[in-house]
Structure of FecR domain-containing protein:
Amino acid sequence: MYPNFKILPKEVKADLKAKIAESIAFEKKRARRKKLYVLSSSAAAVFCLLFGLVTIFKQKSQSLEINAIEEFAKNTANEGSFEKSNKVQLVLSDHEAVTVGDSTTIAYDASGNKINVNNKQIKQKVSKESQYNTVLVPYGKRAQLSLADGTQVWLNSGSKLIYPTTFDAETREVFLEGEGIFDVSHNAAKPFFVKTANNYSVRVLGTLFNVSCYAKDAKVSTALLRGKVKVAYAKKGFFGTDTIQTILKPGMIAALDKKKETMKAVVQDVEPLFSWRKGYYEFSQERLSLVLDKLTRYYNVDFVLNKKISTNETYSGAFKLNDDLDKVVETLEATTGFELVYNESTREITIN
């Protein structure tokens, strides 16, 4: 039964209205508290989510943290360039540059402190900290090294190799720009890594392989002639560590598409990819654009195309890397059927 306000005394009416007002105020206050609780709970959830994202990002950053040789490569990127010289340069840890003669092998002793080059011996200062040397190979030149652990390295035209004078760490790591062939000295306790500027690395124990990682090329490739290697590429991203990797067996090549961030491994004849270390460039069923790119590096010459060339046409042939450019033009004409003109003053070969 509801109260009849018309027959109630004034005092009772006033008391009843006060209680009703008090009840309404209490309900409003409780509603505000509930709203605040919901808001505070939501804020806490958002904070936890953000904290989790920050933690993941921190872990991701740490996982992609560059190591000492990559840091050295980054800090010295502009100090030496193979494009500024027509001679092979050995840059020592104290920044002294030594010009390396043609057909000269840069050979280190087991301590890494003595270097035989140009029929002379160079002594480096002994240091407790890691010391890195750099070899710069200009276009039209090639170089060969024998590292302190006995690993043999051949560097192709337009390449740069950074390496420690001695391998004192738990792993043996070098940093490559361009193209190199590695015949790695076996040491199961110290795996060998070739690092590049593209979050790309090759891990080996003892093997013979080729790595091509020119900055202007669309792909980074590794070809295996002997042994076994693991090729890995760490994708750039905000969440987690997304690493693509594959294991190669002899007669396989892995190619990383730098733009698409995809890697494909196939079986093919890899022998031609190693021919340049023996003094000649061999190619089989290769697109002409790729052949010309390599000849540009090998002979330090530019090609001008006046003739429209089909990108689907492939060619096979071979060049001796000590041939003069007139011989190169003659071989290209016989291989492609095109007319070529060589301008000695500008070092340009025009395809008509």
